[in-house]
Design goal:
It contains 1 helix and 10 strands. By secondary structure, it is mostly beta strands. The chain has one domain: Porin. The chain has an 8-stranded antiparallel beta barrel with strand order 1-2-3-4-5-6-7-10. The longest helix is centred in the first third of the chain and has 17 residues. The protein is globular, with a radius of gyration of 19 Å.
Length: 177
């Protein structure tokens, strides 16, 4: 088993070296992407898996840094709650100027959600690490948010307000254009 892992690591390092002269990750100009991901949610309350689709648009500065903004749609498939709409800013840094390039990313913004019974505004910050392979990207990260909600119920007089702090691990796949 050690030999298999060693050979895989050696082949991966060869892929980095073979594409070292390609100017893919440090290219200047506009970049957009469409991303689909899955959240594994843990915390207090009824949480489960969430599916996310988002689009980010921004500018690649030419030194490995990307700055952009985006929006998306997040749906909780377990609780069947109203979908969330995140609006965010994204900063990403590629470490290697190659077609296969590891990166670190920070995304911060606000999620909006609501239906007849409640409304929610959730500021969040998400940190992640991933790998760009040509036009494709895979990442794994941690999302932290502080939810402020206001719930209306026909069982109580007036709205009920509160806070909860769900944390989310996520994995996503993106296609750049």
């Amino acid at each position: 088993m050690r030999k298999v892992i060693f050979v895989c690591a050696l082949l991966l390092s060869c892929a980095f070296m073979a594409s070292a002269q390609n100017n893919r990750a440090f290219k200047k100009g506009y970049q957009g992407d469409i991303e689909i991901g899955n959240y594994a949610v843990f915390g207090k309350g009824k949480y489960g898996g969430m599916i996310q689709v988002s689009s980010t648009h921004g500018y690649r500065l030419g030194n490995g840094m990307f700055l952009g903004a985006g929006f998306g749609l997040v749906y909780d498939i377990v609780a069947e709650a109203a979908p969330e709409i995140p609006v965010f800013m994204d900063a990403k840094y590629n470490f290697v100027d190659a077609s296969v390039s590891p990166y670190a990313s920070v995304r911060t913004g606000v999620r909006f959600c609501g239906d007849y019974y409640y409304s929610m505004i959730q500021p969040f910050i998400a940190v992640s690490a991933g790998v760009d392979v040509g036009r494709f990207s895979v990442k794994l990260g941690y999302d932290y948010g502080n939810v402020h909600y206001s719930a209306n119920s026909h069982y109580s007089n007036g709205p009920t307000e509160g806070y909860t702090k769900p944390s989310q691990l996520f994995c996503s796949f993106a296609v750049k254009f």
